[in-house]
Amino acid sequence: MTLSTKQRAMVVGTAAAVTVTALGAGGAMAADNDRPVAAKDRAAAAKPREMHVTGDAWVNFPGDTEYPHRRFIVDAHGAPWKIENNKIVFGAARGTVKFDHYSPDEPGGPSKHHWGSIKVDYVMATGPVAVVSGIRQDNVPANQRRATLTFYQSPDGHRFDRMGFSWGVVDPRCQTMGSGPAPFSPVSRGPFNERITGYTVKDAPLPVPKGDFLPPDSPADCSFKDEDTQRG
């Protein structure tokens, strides 16, 4: 059953409001489609555009004063939602986030790298801020497998970039797609006094549907055991 014009407007407004609220930033989306496009650029402009977050940096986690160094390598592309069979489907992104915690296995022991990864399914970017979400591929409890990260690309240069992650200073249980924390960890020199590049955020217009469409299904429960979130 399709929605009326009034209902459809409410659904789009609600979806956009929820997503932008999760970002913690209320900037307007890019409006490139409203500007004249040069003839030579028309072919490129006709192609679908994607939001993306890319980069690599050590950050300083303020919640761990003894071993604060964390490294996040992100390569995420896509959008917060897509339209399938006239229905909004949240999660229209792909990519990977790799993360490393350089610390000892036991107090007083030698520090070593502890790597994990996230399979990305959600990207939302506006201005210099982005939310990236996905399913952790390392061994964590089922209700902590949904991970959400935030990224801030500073206009003052990459050494002022920041990011946040959902198992840091927030409750990691039952995270939902797009509900990221504030970017609480500043980019810093790592454990080897090494500064890596930083993060690049690129926004794009939201894929707002036209015509009749249906609202999204209710999200899966936070066990994340449904078929489409199995490790892979």
Feature tags:
nine-stranded antiparallel sheet; 2 helices; 232 residues; globular; disordered C terminus
Q: Could you tell me the mean pLDDT? A: 80
User: Could you tell me the strand content as a percent range?
Assistant: 35-45%
> Helix count?
2
From the alpha carbons, calculate the radius of gyration and give it in angstroms: 19 Å
Q: Main beta sheet: strand number and arrangement?
A: 9 strands, antiparallel
Written overview of the protein:
The structure is a single chain. The protein is mainly β and 232 residues long. The chain is built from 2 helices and 11 strands. A hairpin with a 6-residue loop joins strand 4 and strand 5. The longest helix has 19 residues, at 5-23. Residues 1-37, 39-48 and 226-232 have low confidence and may be disordered.
